[in-house]
Write a structure and sequence with these properties.
One of its GO terms (molecular function) is RNA binding. This protein is α/β, with parallel strands linked by helices. The chain is 44% helix and 13% strand. The chain has 19 helices and 13 strands. Helix 12 crosses helix 16. The longest helix has 16 residues. The chain is elongated and about 85 Å long. The two termini are 52 Å apart.
Length: 424
Amino acid sequence: MSVTTSLLDELAWRGMLYQSTDGAAEALAAGTVRGYCGFDPTAPSLHVGNLVPVMGLVHLQLAGHRPVALVGGGTGMIGDPSGKTAERQLNPREVVEQNARAIRDQLAHFLDFEGPNGAMMLDNAEWLAKLNLIEFLRDVGKHFSVNVMLAKESVRGRMESGISYTEFSYMLLQAYDYLEMHRRHGVTLQLGGSDQWGNMTAGTDLIRRMDGGSAHALTLPLLTTASGTKFGKTEAGAVWLDPQRTSPYQFYQFWMHADDRDAGKLLRYFTLLPRDEIEALDEATAERPERREAQHALAYDVTARVHGAEAARVAQEVSGLLFAKGDPRRLSPAAFGALAKEIPYVEVAAPDPGTSLDAVDLFVTAGLVKSKGEARRLLDQGGLTVSGRRLTADTRFVTDEDYLAGRYLLLRKGARDYALVRVN
């Protein structure tokens, strides 16, 4: 997107524009705008569900405006009730601070912090931790009607299950964040999920009431899959940006498993591919769905942005081996390290000089079969391979040609069950 492209037009084409306040388009067209989005540090990592607002900030910057990423070091001590059916567990201050630092590092993969419209990173603990309760209630609280707050979706949805005064007050704190950034940094736009609309407009109202200023809000849709499930949730739980929580390979596979019905939408949301390329991939999905061209482009692009091009390349290698039956001899040295984290992995001692390893023993040691008897039956059926070579009862011993990268053996039982052996 060029700097002259309208932010709202770009978001609308990509399906990422849900609603905006009156006058937002005119404000964005009038000059450089500073717009912010908040991130809740209740965990030490963002997850893929957070990528929708992150990409909103990316598009804001590409349109020539200045993004502000606000880490909620202060509000994270309370927790946002939006979208929650029960009270959040409150984290100790030191945990919130540690999580905030980790999130700041992850956001740096998406936003450019250099140049005239370089991104800014702020932490609301800077002003919230210094608040005086009496002054806050007198100066800010008087501008909020309890009747109006009770009508907000984030509060109304919790009336039956109950909501504490702590979480009830979150709206005031988020609105105050907007006011503080408006005063300190000239921020006049807030971006967030559609479930945040009530909190966001509370902020624009507070700026108008206290300072007579003009500010706007822009919301992005809450993303669901074609099957109706919440985006980013899997049987294993959340898909994290932290490689220690979700490996680059698992992250890559999450995108590869996208439903054909979702692939085009996900390309629009999470990549910066131009319109003609995305539409060409839409056509490829319709005409050649078995090739999964859109999913390949999506998985590589997002993984490279989050984990780097090398990690994306390695994930692509491992994926091609395990799911497309690629040639194991073409694996790079880095791919073996990644593979060892994703499939059963064992280390064995090198055989004595003049002898060879028995593959039957290796399959048992790696846990791919329960017994030598099972391994021998599979040998007779042609169901075992070592480094791509199909074994028989007469050719079950490992040869020099079977070693990959000098020390590895890749075992496969049937079509999909793999194990990696390192010979020391």
